[in-house]
Amino acid sequence: MKKDDILKKAQYEKKDEREEHVKTKAFHAGWIGVSAVMIFLIIWRSIHNESASDLLMILMAQIGATSFYQYAKIPDKKTYLMGGVFSIIGLGLALASLLSQYGVY
Q1: What is the sign of the dihedral through the CA atoms of 73, 76, 16 and 27?
Q2: What is each CA distance from 66 to 1, 24, 83, 97, in whole angstroms?
Q3: Model confidence pLDDT, tens digit, residues 6-46
Q4: Mean pLDDT calculated for residue range 50-68
Q5: How many CB atoms are closer than 10 A to CB 85?
Q6: How many CB atoms lie within 10 A of CB 31?
Q7: What is the pTM of this model?
Q8: Which of 12, 20, 22, 94 has the most CB atoms in a 10 Å sphere around its CB?
Q9: What are the domain boundaries of the chain?
Q10: Residue 66: which residues within 8 A CB-CB, separation 6 or more?
């Protein structure tokens, strides 16, 4: 295939790899920022003897979704599967703690 044909094909697809890379990095940086703020709030709440079950549920759901997605795309890495399983267990424990605070469980 000639260089001109490759260029025309790439322009026809209208998929900019740089833009996709920047978008991926931006989402990654965003989740790091959100996770850092949530960890700060968890620590702040524990200092003031307040429950952080709701924040832990959000954090565990995010980690679980990320881990299971990575495992689906890269099934050779069992660490992603284990991370997902542990985060789902953490999510369940945080949910049980939250429900016990409201007298449901």
Answers
A1: positive
A2: 38, 13, 9, 23
A3: 767 766 666 677 888 888 899 899 989 999 999 999 999 99
A4: 93
A5: 14
A6: 13
A7: 0.73
A8: 94
A9: 16-102
A10: 31
